[in-house]
Amino acid sequence: MQNQNQFNSFKKHLKERYDNLVEKSNDYRFEDESISDLAAFKAMKLLKKLNQISYLDR
Fold this sequence. Notes:
By secondary structure, this protein is an all-alpha fold. Helix 1 packs antiparallel against helix 2 (33-57). It has helices at residues 2-27, 33-57. The longest helix is centred in the N-terminal third of the chain and has 26 residues, at 2-27. The protein has 2 helices and no strands.
């Protein structure tokens, strides 16, 4: 049961970070492309981790 709670809390944390990075990427899209690209790249890496956690959570 503790592992389930651990997965859920880690998944929630990653989802929040992912949402923030996607929002940052969209905000800086026209102002500074390098910041936008970096945020999008970090978001893609987090999405990969989220998918791994979701697979292990099943």
